Amino acid sequence: MTKDLEHKFIAEFEKNQNIIHKVCRIYTNNQDAHNDLFQEITIQLWKAYPKFRGDSKLSTWMYRIGLNTAITLYRKSKRTIQTQDFDSVLHRIQATEYDATEEEQLKIMYKAIHQLSDIDKALIFLYLEDKNYTEISETLGISEVNARVKMNRIKTRLKKILNP
Protein backbone atom coordinates (compact mmCIF):
# COMPACT_ATOMS: atom_id res chain seq x y z
CA MET A 1 0.00 0.00 0.00
CA THR A 2 1.37 3.41 -0.92
CA LYS A 3 2.00 6.06 1.73
CA ASP A 4 -0.75 8.28 0.27
CA LEU A 5 -3.25 5.44 0.43
CA GLU A 6 -2.08 4.60 3.96
CA HIS A 7 -2.54 8.21 5.12
CA LYS A 8 -5.96 8.38 3.47
CA PHE A 9 -7.02 5.14 5.20
CA ILE A 10 -5.85 6.37 8.60
CA ALA A 11 -7.63 9.71 8.19
CA GLU A 12 -10.88 8.09 7.03
CA PHE A 13 -10.67 5.43 9.73
CA GLU A 14 -10.14 7.93 12.53
CA LYS A 15 -13.04 10.02 11.25
CA ASN A 16 -15.42 7.02 11.07
CA GLN A 17 -14.19 4.69 13.82
CA ASN A 18 -17.37 5.13 15.86
CA ILE A 19 -19.03 2.91 13.26
CA ILE A 20 -16.74 0.09 14.35
CA HIS A 21 -17.26 0.83 18.05
CA LYS A 22 -21.01 0.58 17.52
CA VAL A 23 -20.70 -2.75 15.72
CA CYS A 24 -18.50 -4.03 18.56
CA ARG A 25 -21.03 -2.82 21.13
CA ILE A 26 -23.79 -4.86 19.48
CA TYR A 27 -21.77 -8.09 19.24
CA THR A 28 -19.77 -8.10 22.50
CA ASN A 29 -20.54 -8.13 26.22
CA ASN A 30 -17.29 -6.87 27.77
CA GLN A 31 -14.46 -4.46 27.05
CA ASP A 32 -11.85 -7.14 26.24
CA ALA A 33 -14.09 -8.75 23.63
CA HIS A 34 -14.95 -5.26 22.32
CA ASN A 35 -11.24 -4.43 21.94
CA ASP A 36 -10.49 -7.77 20.24
CA LEU A 37 -13.33 -7.37 17.76
CA PHE A 38 -12.40 -3.72 17.14
CA GLN A 39 -8.86 -4.78 16.28
CA GLU A 40 -10.00 -7.60 14.00
CA ILE A 41 -12.43 -5.35 12.11
CA THR A 42 -9.69 -2.71 11.76
CA ILE A 43 -7.39 -5.34 10.27
CA GLN A 44 -10.07 -6.47 7.83
CA LEU A 45 -10.74 -2.86 6.80
CA TRP A 46 -7.00 -2.27 6.34
CA LYS A 47 -6.65 -5.36 4.15
CA ALA A 48 -9.72 -4.51 2.06
CA TYR A 49 -9.11 -0.76 1.70
CA PRO A 50 -6.96 -0.96 -1.46
CA LYS A 51 -9.91 -2.71 -3.18
CA PHE A 52 -12.48 -0.08 -2.10
CA ARG A 53 -13.73 1.40 -5.38
CA GLY A 54 -16.11 3.99 -3.99
CA ASP A 55 -19.21 2.35 -5.49
CA SER A 56 -20.91 2.94 -2.15
CA LYS A 57 -20.32 5.43 0.63
CA LEU A 58 -17.26 4.68 2.77
CA SER A 59 -19.49 4.38 5.85
CA THR A 60 -21.67 1.75 4.13
CA TRP A 61 -18.55 -0.18 3.14
CA MET A 62 -17.22 0.04 6.72
CA TYR A 63 -20.55 -1.17 8.13
CA ARG A 64 -20.52 -4.11 5.73
CA ILE A 65 -16.94 -5.15 6.55
CA GLY A 66 -17.54 -4.61 10.28
CA LEU A 67 -20.80 -6.54 10.41
CA ASN A 68 -19.51 -9.38 8.25
CA THR A 69 -16.41 -9.70 10.43
CA ALA A 70 -18.45 -9.64 13.65
CA ILE A 71 -20.97 -12.17 12.37
CA THR A 72 -18.24 -14.47 11.08
CA LEU A 73 -16.22 -14.35 14.30
CA TYR A 74 -19.06 -14.58 16.77
CA ARG A 75 -21.49 -16.90 14.98
CA LYS A 76 -19.63 -19.94 16.30
CA SER A 77 -18.41 -19.31 19.83
CA LYS A 78 -16.08 -22.33 19.71
CA ARG A 79 -14.09 -20.89 16.83
CA THR A 80 -10.65 -19.53 17.68
CA ILE A 81 -10.05 -16.02 16.40
CA GLN A 82 -6.93 -15.76 14.25
CA THR A 83 -5.49 -12.26 14.47
CA GLN A 84 -2.77 -10.72 12.37
CA ASP A 85 0.11 -8.47 13.33
CA PHE A 86 -1.09 -4.92 12.96
CA ASP A 87 1.55 -3.20 15.10
CA SER A 88 3.22 -1.54 12.13
CA VAL A 89 0.18 0.68 11.51
CA LEU A 90 -1.65 0.58 14.83
CA HIS A 91 0.69 3.10 16.47
CA ARG A 92 -0.29 5.68 13.84
CA ILE A 93 -4.04 5.36 14.42
CA GLN A 94 -5.41 7.46 17.25
CA ALA A 95 -8.18 5.37 18.83
CA THR A 96 -10.68 7.30 20.87
CA GLU A 97 -12.23 5.46 23.78
CA TYR A 98 -15.86 4.51 23.45
CA ASP A 99 -17.96 6.12 26.18
CA ALA A 100 -19.51 3.15 27.98
CA THR A 101 -21.63 5.24 30.34
CA GLU A 102 -25.07 4.95 28.84
CA GLU A 103 -28.49 5.60 30.20
CA GLU A 104 -30.44 2.74 31.77
CA GLN A 105 -32.85 2.60 28.81
CA LEU A 106 -29.97 2.09 26.41
CA LYS A 107 -28.71 -0.81 28.53
CA ILE A 108 -32.15 -2.41 28.46
CA MET A 109 -32.36 -1.97 24.69
CA TYR A 110 -28.91 -3.53 24.14
CA LYS A 111 -29.88 -6.43 26.39
CA ALA A 112 -32.97 -7.01 24.24
CA ILE A 113 -30.97 -6.68 21.01
CA HIS A 114 -28.48 -9.29 22.27
CA GLN A 115 -31.35 -11.80 22.23
CA LEU A 116 -31.79 -11.41 18.47
CA SER A 117 -30.09 -13.52 15.79
CA ASP A 118 -26.86 -12.25 14.20
CA ILE A 119 -28.58 -11.03 11.03
CA ASP A 120 -31.40 -9.40 13.01
CA LYS A 121 -28.81 -7.62 15.18
CA ALA A 122 -27.14 -6.26 12.05
CA LEU A 123 -30.45 -5.10 10.61
CA ILE A 124 -31.63 -3.34 13.79
CA PHE A 125 -28.19 -1.80 14.20
CA LEU A 126 -28.31 -0.24 10.74
CA TYR A 127 -31.91 0.86 11.32
CA LEU A 128 -30.91 2.56 14.59
CA GLU A 129 -28.09 4.26 12.69
CA ASP A 130 -30.81 5.92 10.54
CA LYS A 131 -29.85 4.00 7.42
CA ASN A 132 -32.60 3.83 4.83
CA TYR A 133 -33.84 0.47 3.57
CA THR A 134 -31.84 0.81 0.36
CA GLU A 135 -28.58 1.18 2.34
CA ILE A 136 -29.60 -1.62 4.72
CA SER A 137 -30.35 -3.99 1.84
CA GLU A 138 -27.05 -3.13 0.10
CA THR A 139 -25.05 -3.58 3.30
CA LEU A 140 -26.64 -6.90 4.24
CA GLY A 141 -26.99 -8.24 0.70
CA ILE A 142 -30.77 -8.77 0.91
CA SER A 143 -33.64 -7.24 -1.03
CA GLU A 144 -35.20 -4.00 0.15
CA VAL A 145 -38.57 -5.74 0.59
CA ASN A 146 -36.92 -8.45 2.70
CA ALA A 147 -35.25 -5.79 4.84
CA ARG A 148 -38.61 -4.09 5.47
CA VAL A 149 -40.36 -7.36 6.36
CA LYS A 150 -37.54 -8.44 8.66
CA MET A 151 -37.52 -5.01 10.34
CA ASN A 152 -41.24 -5.20 11.11
CA ARG A 153 -40.75 -8.66 12.63
CA ILE A 154 -37.79 -7.44 14.67
CA LYS A 155 -39.77 -4.48 16.01
CA THR A 156 -42.57 -6.84 17.07
CA ARG A 157 -40.09 -9.19 18.74
CA LEU A 158 -38.33 -6.35 20.58
CA LYS A 159 -41.70 -5.02 21.82
CA LYS A 160 -42.47 -8.48 23.24
CA ILE A 161 -39.03 -8.70 24.89
CA LEU A 162 -39.24 -5.21 26.37
CA ASN A 163 -42.92 -5.42 27.38
CA PRO A 164 -43.61 -9.08 28.29
From TrEMBL:
Protein's recorded name: RNA polymerase sigma-70 factor, ECF subfamily
Keywords: Sigma factor, Transcription, Transcription regulation
Limits of the RNA polymerase sigma factor 70 region 4 type domain: 108-158
Superkingdom per UniProt: Bacteria
Entry-linked Pfam families: Sigma70_r2, Sigma70_r4_2
Family per record: Belongs to the sigma-70 factor family. ECF subfamily.
Molecular function, one GO term: sigma factor activity
Transcription regulation found in the keyword field: yes
InterPro entries named in the record: RNA_pol_sigma-70-like, RNA_pol_sigma-70_dom, RNA_pol_sigma70_r2, RNA_pol_sigma70_r4_t2, RNA_pol_sigma_r2, RNA_pol_sigma_r3/r4-like, WH-like_DNA-bd_sf
Gene3D superfamilies membership: 1.10.1740.10, Winged helix-like DNA-binding domain superfamily/Winged helix DNA-binding domain
UniProt-listed GO biological process terms: DNA-templated transcription initiation
UniProt xrefs under PANTHER family: RNA POLYMERASE ECF-TYPE SIGMA FACTO, RNA POLYMERASE ECF-TYPE SIGMA FACTOR
RNA polymerase sigma-70 region domain sequence ranges: 13-80
